[in-house]
Automatic annotation (TrEMBL):
Superkingdom of the organism of origin: Bacteria
Pfam families: DUF418
Protein name according to UniProt: DUF418 domain-containing protein
Keyword Transport in annotation: no
Presence of the UniProt keyword Transmembrane helix in the record: yes
Assigned keywords, A-Z: Membrane, Transmembrane, Transmembrane helix
InterPro entries: Bact_Transport_Assoc (IPR052529), DUF418 (IPR007349)
Spans through the membrane: 21-47, 128-143, 150-175, 235-258, 270-289, 301-324, 345-363, 375-394
Domain DUF418 span(s) in chain numbering: 252-412
Protein backbone atom coordinates (compact mmCIF):
# COMPACT_ATOMS: atom_id res chain seq x y z
CA UNK A 1 0.00 0.00 0.00
CA UNK A 2 1.34 3.44 -0.91
CA UNK A 3 1.48 6.08 1.79
CA UNK A 4 2.57 8.86 -0.55
CA UNK A 5 0.90 12.18 0.14
CA UNK A 6 0.87 15.07 -2.24
CA UNK A 7 3.22 17.89 -1.33
CA UNK A 8 1.26 20.74 0.17
CA UNK A 9 2.18 24.15 1.51
CA UNK A 10 1.82 25.33 5.08
CA UNK A 11 -1.81 26.31 5.70
CA UNK A 12 -3.09 29.23 7.74
CA UNK A 13 -3.78 27.23 10.93
CA UNK A 14 -0.20 25.89 10.77
CA UNK A 15 1.36 29.37 10.68
CA UNK A 16 3.20 30.54 13.74
CA UNK A 17 1.85 33.98 14.62
CA UNK A 18 5.13 34.92 16.29
CA UNK A 19 7.05 34.35 13.04
CA UNK A 20 4.74 36.73 11.17
CA UNK A 21 5.03 39.30 13.96
CA UNK A 22 8.85 39.21 14.00
CA UNK A 23 8.98 39.17 10.20
CA UNK A 24 6.73 42.25 10.13
CA UNK A 25 9.07 44.12 12.49
CA UNK A 26 12.04 43.08 10.35
CA UNK A 27 10.57 44.12 7.00
CA UNK A 28 9.68 47.52 8.46
CA UNK A 29 13.04 47.96 10.14
CA UNK A 30 15.07 46.94 7.11
CA UNK A 31 13.58 49.77 5.08
CA UNK A 32 15.14 52.28 7.49
CA UNK A 33 18.51 50.70 6.79
CA UNK A 34 18.00 50.34 3.03
CA UNK A 35 16.54 53.77 2.34
CA UNK A 36 20.04 55.31 2.31
CA UNK A 37 21.03 52.91 -0.48
CA UNK A 38 17.82 53.70 -2.35
CA UNK A 39 18.18 57.48 -2.22
CA UNK A 40 21.97 57.81 -2.37
CA UNK A 41 24.73 55.62 -3.78
CA UNK A 42 25.10 52.06 -2.48
CA UNK A 43 28.43 53.13 -0.95
CA UNK A 44 26.61 55.72 1.18
CA UNK A 45 24.84 52.88 2.99
CA UNK A 46 28.00 52.40 5.05
CA UNK A 47 30.12 55.46 4.32
CA UNK A 48 28.49 58.90 4.86
CA UNK A 49 31.20 60.52 2.72
CA UNK A 50 29.40 59.19 -0.37
CA UNK A 51 26.32 61.35 0.34
CA UNK A 52 25.68 63.95 -2.38
CA UNK A 53 23.91 66.14 0.19
CA UNK A 54 25.49 67.64 3.34
CA UNK A 55 26.10 65.16 6.16
CA UNK A 56 26.56 67.33 9.23
CA UNK A 57 26.91 66.55 12.92
CA UNK A 58 23.23 65.65 13.39
CA UNK A 59 23.39 63.25 10.45
CA UNK A 60 26.59 61.74 11.86
CA UNK A 61 24.77 60.97 15.10
CA UNK A 62 21.92 59.45 13.09
CA UNK A 63 24.54 57.24 11.43
CA UNK A 64 25.57 56.04 14.91
CA UNK A 65 21.92 55.45 15.88
CA UNK A 66 21.25 53.43 12.74
CA UNK A 67 24.50 51.50 13.22
CA UNK A 68 23.54 50.51 16.77
CA UNK A 69 19.80 49.98 16.44
CA UNK A 70 19.15 48.76 12.90
CA UNK A 71 22.10 47.82 10.70
CA UNK A 72 22.55 44.08 10.40
CA UNK A 73 19.91 43.36 13.06
CA UNK A 74 16.90 43.30 10.74
CA UNK A 75 18.78 41.25 8.15
CA UNK A 76 19.83 38.96 11.00
CA UNK A 77 16.21 38.51 12.11
CA UNK A 78 15.26 37.61 8.54
CA UNK A 79 18.06 35.02 8.53
CA UNK A 80 16.84 33.40 11.75
CA UNK A 81 13.29 33.34 10.44
CA UNK A 82 14.43 31.93 7.11
CA UNK A 83 16.02 29.01 8.97
CA UNK A 84 12.89 28.52 11.04
CA UNK A 85 10.83 28.55 7.84
CA UNK A 86 12.96 25.82 6.27
CA UNK A 87 12.29 23.54 9.25
CA UNK A 88 8.60 24.47 9.38
CA UNK A 89 8.20 23.60 5.71
CA UNK A 90 10.07 20.32 6.25
CA UNK A 91 7.67 19.41 9.07
CA UNK A 92 4.45 20.38 7.29
CA UNK A 93 5.00 19.77 3.58
CA UNK A 94 3.77 16.18 3.73
CA UNK A 95 6.29 14.69 1.32
CA UNK A 96 6.81 10.92 1.43
CA UNK A 97 10.59 10.42 1.66
CA UNK A 98 13.47 12.84 2.12
CA UNK A 99 14.37 13.05 -1.54
CA UNK A 100 10.99 14.50 -2.47
CA UNK A 101 11.09 17.02 0.36
CA UNK A 102 14.59 18.22 -0.49
CA UNK A 103 13.54 18.50 -4.14
CA UNK A 104 10.58 20.64 -3.12
CA UNK A 105 12.79 22.89 -1.00
CA UNK A 106 15.33 23.22 -3.82
CA UNK A 107 12.57 24.25 -6.27
CA UNK A 108 11.38 26.84 -3.79
CA UNK A 109 14.88 28.21 -3.31
CA UNK A 110 15.59 28.06 -7.04
CA UNK A 111 12.63 30.32 -7.75
CA UNK A 112 13.73 32.61 -4.92
CA UNK A 113 17.09 32.89 -6.70
CA UNK A 114 15.28 33.91 -9.89
CA UNK A 115 13.27 36.55 -8.01
CA UNK A 116 16.44 37.81 -6.34
CA UNK A 117 18.40 38.16 -9.58
CA UNK A 118 15.48 40.00 -11.20
CA UNK A 119 15.33 42.27 -8.14
CA UNK A 120 19.06 42.99 -8.31
CA UNK A 121 19.29 43.74 -12.03
CA UNK A 122 15.95 45.47 -12.59
CA UNK A 123 15.09 47.20 -9.29
CA UNK A 124 17.90 47.62 -6.75
CA UNK A 125 21.43 46.32 -6.20
CA UNK A 126 20.93 45.94 -2.44
CA UNK A 127 19.08 42.64 -2.91
CA UNK A 128 19.30 39.95 -0.21
CA UNK A 129 17.10 37.28 -1.85
CA UNK A 130 19.98 35.81 -3.86
CA UNK A 131 21.91 35.50 -0.61
CA UNK A 132 19.04 33.67 1.11
CA UNK A 133 18.43 31.37 -1.86
CA UNK A 134 22.06 30.26 -2.03
CA UNK A 135 22.58 30.01 1.73
CA UNK A 136 19.26 28.18 2.08
CA UNK A 137 20.46 25.55 -0.37
CA UNK A 138 23.56 25.12 1.78
CA UNK A 139 21.49 24.92 4.96
CA UNK A 140 19.49 21.99 3.55
CA UNK A 141 22.61 19.86 4.06
CA UNK A 142 22.08 20.28 7.82
CA UNK A 143 18.29 20.20 8.05
CA UNK A 144 18.18 16.79 9.74
CA UNK A 145 20.87 17.63 12.30
CA UNK A 146 19.96 17.67 16.01
CA UNK A 147 19.16 21.13 17.31
CA UNK A 148 22.18 21.25 19.63
CA UNK A 149 24.57 20.43 16.79
CA UNK A 150 22.97 23.11 14.62
CA UNK A 151 23.32 25.69 17.37
CA UNK A 152 26.95 24.83 18.12
CA UNK A 153 28.10 24.67 14.50
CA UNK A 154 26.17 27.81 13.59
CA UNK A 155 27.79 29.73 16.44
CA UNK A 156 31.27 28.44 15.55
CA UNK A 157 30.84 29.37 11.87
CA UNK A 158 29.54 32.80 12.83
CA UNK A 159 32.61 33.34 15.04
CA UNK A 160 34.84 32.18 12.19
CA UNK A 161 33.12 34.86 10.09
CA UNK A 162 34.32 37.49 12.54
CA UNK A 163 37.92 36.29 12.16
CA UNK A 164 37.67 36.33 8.36
CA UNK A 165 36.01 39.76 8.29
CA UNK A 166 38.60 41.19 10.65
CA UNK A 167 41.32 40.05 8.26
CA UNK A 168 39.53 41.31 5.14
CA UNK A 169 37.96 44.56 6.37
CA UNK A 170 39.65 45.63 9.62
CA UNK A 171 43.19 45.28 8.29
CA UNK A 172 42.70 47.85 5.48
CA UNK A 173 41.30 50.33 8.02
CA UNK A 174 44.23 49.87 10.40
CA UNK A 175 46.78 50.24 7.59
CA UNK A 176 45.16 53.02 5.55
CA UNK A 177 43.65 55.22 8.23
CA UNK A 178 45.47 54.72 11.53
CA UNK A 179 49.03 55.22 12.76
CA UNK A 180 49.69 51.47 12.42
CA UNK A 181 50.13 51.95 8.68
CA UNK A 182 52.18 55.13 8.85
CA UNK A 183 55.61 53.48 8.59
CA UNK A 184 57.66 53.14 5.42
CA UNK A 185 57.11 49.39 5.34
CA UNK A 186 53.37 49.92 4.86
CA UNK A 187 53.62 52.83 2.42
CA UNK A 188 52.93 50.77 -0.72
CA UNK A 189 50.01 48.88 0.82
CA UNK A 190 48.58 52.11 2.21
CA UNK A 191 48.77 53.73 -1.25
CA UNK A 192 46.98 50.75 -2.79
CA UNK A 193 44.18 50.97 -0.25
CA UNK A 194 43.77 54.70 -0.81
CA UNK A 195 43.61 54.03 -4.56
CA UNK A 196 40.98 51.33 -4.02
CA UNK A 197 38.81 53.75 -2.06
CA UNK A 198 39.22 56.39 -4.77
CA UNK A 199 38.26 53.84 -7.44
CA UNK A 200 35.05 53.07 -5.55
CA UNK A 201 34.28 56.78 -5.32
CA UNK A 202 34.95 57.19 -9.05
CA UNK A 203 32.57 54.31 -9.77
CA UNK A 204 29.87 56.04 -7.75
CA UNK A 205 30.42 59.26 -9.70
CA UNK A 206 29.99 57.42 -13.01
CA UNK A 207 26.70 55.93 -11.85
CA UNK A 208 25.53 59.31 -10.54
CA UNK A 209 25.03 60.38 -14.15
CA UNK A 210 22.72 57.42 -14.76
CA UNK A 211 20.75 57.95 -11.56
CA UNK A 212 20.27 61.67 -12.07
CA UNK A 213 19.82 62.04 -15.84
CA UNK A 214 19.69 58.51 -17.31
CA UNK A 215 16.85 56.30 -18.43
CA UNK A 216 15.59 53.08 -16.88
CA UNK A 217 17.26 51.21 -19.76
CA UNK A 218 20.59 52.85 -18.84
CA UNK A 219 20.13 51.72 -15.25
CA UNK A 220 19.44 48.09 -16.20
CA UNK A 221 22.23 47.99 -18.78
CA UNK A 222 24.71 49.28 -16.18
CA UNK A 223 23.63 46.59 -13.72
CA UNK A 224 23.94 43.83 -16.31
CA UNK A 225 27.38 44.92 -17.49
CA UNK A 226 29.23 46.53 -14.58
CA UNK A 227 27.64 44.45 -11.80
CA UNK A 228 26.76 41.14 -13.47
CA UNK A 229 28.48 38.86 -10.93
CA UNK A 230 27.98 41.08 -7.90
CA UNK A 231 25.03 39.09 -6.42
CA UNK A 232 27.19 35.97 -6.20
CA UNK A 233 30.27 37.82 -4.93
CA UNK A 234 28.07 39.40 -2.26
CA UNK A 235 26.82 35.95 -1.25
CA UNK A 236 30.41 34.85 -0.64
CA UNK A 237 31.06 38.01 1.35
CA UNK A 238 28.14 37.28 3.70
CA UNK A 239 28.57 33.49 3.71
CA UNK A 240 29.80 33.31 7.31
CA UNK A 241 27.05 35.57 8.57
CA UNK A 242 23.93 34.37 6.80
CA UNK A 243 24.45 30.59 6.68
CA UNK A 244 25.31 30.38 10.41
CA UNK A 245 22.30 32.54 11.33
CA UNK A 246 20.00 30.33 9.22
CA UNK A 247 21.38 27.28 11.08
CA UNK A 248 20.89 29.02 14.44
CA UNK A 249 17.32 29.88 13.41
CA UNK A 250 16.69 26.22 12.58
CA UNK A 251 17.98 25.25 16.02
CA UNK A 252 15.99 27.92 17.87
CA UNK A 253 12.80 26.84 16.10
CA UNK A 254 13.39 23.25 17.25
CA UNK A 255 14.13 24.42 20.80
CA UNK A 256 10.71 26.15 20.80
CA UNK A 257 11.87 29.77 21.08
CA UNK A 258 9.23 30.93 18.58
CA UNK A 259 6.37 28.79 19.93
CA UNK A 260 6.55 29.47 23.66
CA UNK A 261 8.05 26.11 24.65
CA UNK A 262 10.95 27.63 26.58
CA UNK A 263 10.66 28.99 30.11
CA UNK A 264 9.49 32.56 29.55
CA UNK A 265 11.36 34.16 32.46
CA UNK A 266 14.64 32.71 31.25
CA UNK A 267 13.90 33.74 27.68
CA UNK A 268 13.15 37.31 28.80
CA UNK A 269 16.31 37.47 30.89
CA UNK A 270 18.65 36.11 28.22
CA UNK A 271 16.93 38.15 25.52
CA UNK A 272 17.46 41.42 27.37
CA UNK A 273 21.02 40.48 28.31
CA UNK A 274 21.89 39.82 24.66
CA UNK A 275 20.37 43.07 23.43
CA UNK A 276 21.89 45.29 26.15
CA UNK A 277 25.40 43.81 26.10
CA UNK A 278 25.62 43.52 22.32
CA UNK A 279 24.24 47.04 21.81
CA UNK A 280 26.66 48.57 24.33
CA UNK A 281 29.63 47.04 22.50
CA UNK A 282 28.21 48.17 19.16
CA UNK A 283 27.68 51.69 20.54
CA UNK A 284 31.30 51.83 21.67
CA UNK A 285 32.39 50.82 18.15
CA UNK A 286 30.11 53.42 16.56
CA UNK A 287 31.39 56.21 18.81
CA UNK A 288 34.99 55.22 18.09
CA UNK A 289 34.46 55.23 14.31
CA UNK A 290 32.62 58.56 14.55
CA UNK A 291 35.55 59.99 16.51
CA UNK A 292 37.95 58.88 13.75
CA UNK A 293 35.90 60.92 11.26
CA UNK A 294 33.62 58.29 9.69
CA UNK A 295 36.31 57.48 7.14
CA UNK A 296 35.85 55.15 4.17
CA UNK A 297 37.73 52.11 5.49
CA UNK A 298 36.69 52.86 9.06
CA UNK A 299 32.96 52.67 8.37
CA UNK A 300 33.36 49.53 6.25
CA UNK A 301 35.35 47.89 9.05
CA UNK A 302 32.70 48.92 11.58
CA UNK A 303 29.91 47.33 9.55
CA UNK A 304 31.66 44.20 8.31
CA UNK A 305 34.21 43.36 11.01
CA UNK A 306 34.02 45.09 14.38
CA UNK A 307 30.24 44.80 14.85
CA UNK A 308 29.98 41.23 13.51
CA UNK A 309 30.28 39.38 16.81
CA UNK A 310 28.31 41.73 19.13
CA UNK A 311 25.50 41.70 16.55
CA UNK A 312 24.75 38.02 17.25
CA UNK A 313 23.43 38.37 20.83
CA UNK A 314 21.36 41.37 19.75
CA UNK A 315 19.75 39.43 16.89
CA UNK A 316 18.96 36.40 19.02
CA UNK A 317 17.83 38.63 21.90
CA UNK A 318 15.44 40.52 19.63
CA UNK A 319 13.99 37.26 18.32
CA UNK A 320 13.53 35.97 21.88
CA UNK A 321 11.77 39.10 23.16
CA UNK A 322 9.59 39.59 20.10
CA UNK A 323 8.51 35.94 20.22
CA UNK A 324 7.45 36.44 23.84
CA UNK A 325 5.78 39.77 23.08
CA UNK A 326 3.77 38.46 20.13
CA UNK A 327 0.94 36.77 22.11
CA UNK A 328 0.61 39.89 24.27
CA UNK A 329 0.39 42.25 21.27
CA UNK A 330 -3.13 41.96 19.89
CA UNK A 331 -4.08 45.58 19.13
CA UNK A 332 -4.79 47.07 15.72
CA UNK A 333 -1.15 48.00 15.11
CA UNK A 334 0.12 44.52 16.01
CA UNK A 335 -2.42 42.96 13.63
CA UNK A 336 -1.17 45.18 10.84
CA UNK A 337 2.45 44.32 11.67
CA UNK A 338 1.59 40.60 11.43
CA UNK A 339 -0.12 41.16 8.10
CA UNK A 340 2.95 43.00 6.82
CA UNK A 341 5.06 40.07 8.01
CA UNK A 342 2.79 37.51 6.40
CA UNK A 343 3.34 39.43 3.15
CA UNK A 344 7.02 40.19 3.80
CA UNK A 345 8.09 38.91 0.36
CA UNK A 346 5.61 41.17 -1.44
CA UNK A 347 6.44 44.07 0.86
CA UNK A 348 10.20 43.68 0.44
CA UNK A 349 10.06 43.67 -3.36
CA UNK A 350 7.16 46.13 -3.42
CA UNK A 351 9.22 48.59 -1.40
CA UNK A 352 11.95 48.48 -4.06
CA UNK A 353 9.36 49.23 -6.75
CA UNK A 354 8.02 52.20 -4.79
CA UNK A 355 11.49 53.55 -4.01
CA UNK A 356 12.50 53.23 -7.66
CA UNK A 357 9.52 55.42 -8.54
CA UNK A 358 10.39 57.92 -5.80
CA UNK A 359 14.07 58.32 -6.60
CA UNK A 360 14.85 57.54 -10.24
CA UNK A 361 15.21 60.44 -12.68
CA UNK A 362 12.47 59.26 -15.05
CA UNK A 363 10.01 59.15 -12.11
CA UNK A 364 10.22 61.08 -8.81
CA UNK A 365 13.77 62.25 -9.48
CA UNK A 366 14.81 62.55 -5.82
CA UNK A 367 17.96 60.41 -6.03
CA UNK A 368 20.94 62.13 -4.44
CA UNK A 369 18.84 65.12 -3.35
CA UNK A 370 17.69 64.18 0.16
CA UNK A 371 19.61 64.37 3.43
CA UNK A 372 19.73 61.47 5.88
CA UNK A 373 16.84 62.79 8.02
CA UNK A 374 14.74 63.35 4.88
CA UNK A 375 15.48 59.80 3.73
CA UNK A 376 14.19 58.49 7.05
CA UNK A 377 10.94 60.38 6.42
CA UNK A 378 10.65 58.57 3.08
CA UNK A 379 11.23 55.28 4.91
CA UNK A 380 8.52 56.19 7.40
CA UNK A 381 6.13 56.78 4.51
CA UNK A 382 7.04 53.39 3.06
CA UNK A 383 6.33 51.71 6.40
CA UNK A 384 2.94 53.40 6.63
CA UNK A 385 2.20 52.12 3.13
CA UNK A 386 3.11 48.55 4.11
CA UNK A 387 0.92 48.70 7.21
CA UNK A 388 -1.91 50.30 5.29
CA UNK A 389 -2.27 47.80 2.44
CA UNK A 390 -1.23 44.42 3.87
CA UNK A 391 -4.18 43.76 6.18
CA UNK A 392 -6.91 44.85 3.72
CA UNK A 393 -5.28 42.69 1.03
CA UNK A 394 -5.24 39.62 3.28
CA UNK A 395 -8.90 40.11 4.15
CA UNK A 396 -9.71 39.56 0.48
CA UNK A 397 -6.94 37.19 -0.56
CA UNK A 398 -5.28 34.13 0.96
CA UNK A 399 -1.70 35.21 0.23
CA UNK A 400 0.28 38.25 -0.74
CA UNK A 401 0.59 38.55 -4.54
CA UNK A 402 4.23 37.47 -4.73
CA UNK A 403 3.81 34.84 -2.00
CA UNK A 404 1.03 33.35 -4.13
CA UNK A 405 3.16 33.40 -7.29
CA UNK A 406 6.15 31.87 -5.48
CA UNK A 407 3.92 29.16 -4.04
CA UNK A 408 2.39 28.31 -7.42
CA UNK A 409 5.82 28.09 -9.05
CA UNK A 410 7.19 25.95 -6.21
CA UNK A 411 4.39 23.38 -6.28
CA UNK A 412 3.76 23.54 -10.03
CA UNK A 413 0.05 24.27 -9.75
CA UNK A 414 -2.26 27.24 -9.36
CA UNK A 415 -3.64 27.79 -5.87
CA UNK A 416 -6.85 29.74 -5.29
CA UNK A 417 -5.98 33.32 -4.36
CA UNK A 418 -9.27 35.01 -3.50
CA UNK A 419 -10.90 34.11 -0.22
CA UNK A 420 -14.31 32.45 -0.44
CA UNK A 421 -17.08 34.13 1.48
Amino acid sequence: MSHHREARPVTAPQRLSSLDFIRGIAVIGILFANVVGFGQSITAYMWPGAFLTPHGEAADWLWVAQFVLVDGKMRGLFSLLFGAGLVLMAEKAGEDGRGGLIGLQLRRLGWLLVFGLAHFYFLWRGDILVLYALMGMGALLFIDWPRRNLLVLGTLLYTLGMVINMAIMATPFLIAETSLGAGAAMAETRAELVAAAQAEIAGDQAETVILTTGTYADFVANNLTKHLWEPFVGALLYLFETLPLIMIGMALYRYGLFSGQLKSTRQWRWGWAGIVLGSLVTLAIGLWIKETGLTYWGTLAAFMAFSHLPRLPVIVGLAALLALASPRCQGWLARRVRAAGQMAFSNYLGTSMVMLLVFHPWAGGLWGKLTRPELYLVALGGCVLMLAWSQPWLKRFRFGPLEWLWRCLTYGRVFPLRRTR
